[in-house]
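Task: complex structure prediction.
Instruction: return structure tokens for all chains below.
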Amino acid sequence: MFGYVTPCKMEMKIKDYEKFKAYYCGLCNSIKNSYGNLPRLTLNYDMTFLAVLLDSLGDNKIIFTKFSCAIHPLKKRIMINNNAALDYAAFCNTTLAYYKLMDDVQDNKTMKSKVFSLFLKNYLTKSKVEYNDVMMYTKEKLLLINTLEANYNGVSIDELSHVFADLTGFIISFYYKDAAFKEDLYWLGYNLGKWIYIIDAYDDLEKDIKSDSFNAINSLLNRNNLDFKSFSKCIKPRIDYILTTCAEQCLKYLNSLPLIKNEDILYNILELGLMEKMNVVFNKNLGVDYIKGVEYKDGKSL
Amino acid sequence: MANPYEILGVREGSSKEDIKKAYREQAKKYHPDQYGDNPLKDLAEEKMQELNEAYDSLMKNTSSSNSYQSSNTYNSSNNYNSSSNDDHTNRDIYQSIRMDLNSGNIPSAEQKLGSMNTKTAEWNYLMGMVHLKKSWHDSAYNFISKACSMEPNNIEYRRSFNELNTRNSNYRDNYYGRRNNDSGMGNMCLNIWCADSLCECLGGDIISGC
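Output:
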């Protein structure tokens, strides 16, 4: 369900793009140092955004280091290390991945997720004591989502997505839990979490309808059991409204945060990156390549 | 609305006490309960509503908290529960819900709304505002659009509803504005290239080596 919060690369300055990549590599490295090699497989972009955001509010200096990556051995790369925000993001990445896997174990009982989750459990014991609250909260909320998804009758889409949204808000604002801007951080996280939960559901809509498995949008809103084509057509404006509002709210709360660095990256992601992702997901489902769509329009005007 | 003083049968500029007294007398006379199944009951109900409105508007002009309370005790002591008087007490509740919303006390506002039975346009609007504060965008949109369809002429509801849509289109435009500029750029290159190809057929060349 992760990996939707990415920059809009075409609108980025190269220095920002390189910096974002350095955060990404730094996150991977931090996961390796704190938890070991296996959890690195769970690395994702959403958590890179978390690190960039949390780091932007601290006045520490960014330390860049050159290194060669084991997975991409041919090129020298730059990463950020010795960074508390990255370490926290590494912890969140591993925790979320672990409890998500536990869910999968309960849901479909595949051997792969079972073995993987057992390994991750060992790694997680290495995390810092002060993060225990986050671990408990994550466990509790993901369990609650599971229960709600199993008994979804009479639950609204806002109610269901609230749990994941609240968890995201909690995780993001926990890092600065005594700061004055904690509320703004929470609401940014809340809206981003809701956005992630709903775009993920829409992205999986076709697959889930086919395999008849739970899907937040299909199970809650498709009352007449329409097939994918007609349902996606009539539900799209509503989902588009929810997603755009969430994204717009994220931007609004970002505006009220006292950012010290990384501004351009954050604005790029929340202003353009989210919109771009929505565009891709919406048009993928319609079976229209959105780039081709533009060319067609241009072709006609020629 | 007709002159509220006339409806209550008092002189213009009467004191609060006088207005209250007149209202009570009239209310006793027109109280719909005493008509039973008599066809006059409907008429009485209409008159009662008129009285309530007149009374409200007069009391709003003078400072109101005491008189509001006394009129409420009057209602409850008479066990009068027709819809017009519900409106009357509801207005107080809506007022306090608006105060909760302004001060950011969302749980209290939500609880008050939840305990109400009559779901008027205002109820839907205020519920929409509560959900907006909670970032429950989908249900907020539904509540506010319901308020609008129940009272299409209400400017407040309409304005909030429009706001929901404009803030989204502003956000979208920012993205599409930039991306479309780019495709315009691509389009221009394409035009030059086409022009070049055409010219080459005729022996000319705009872009050399192409």
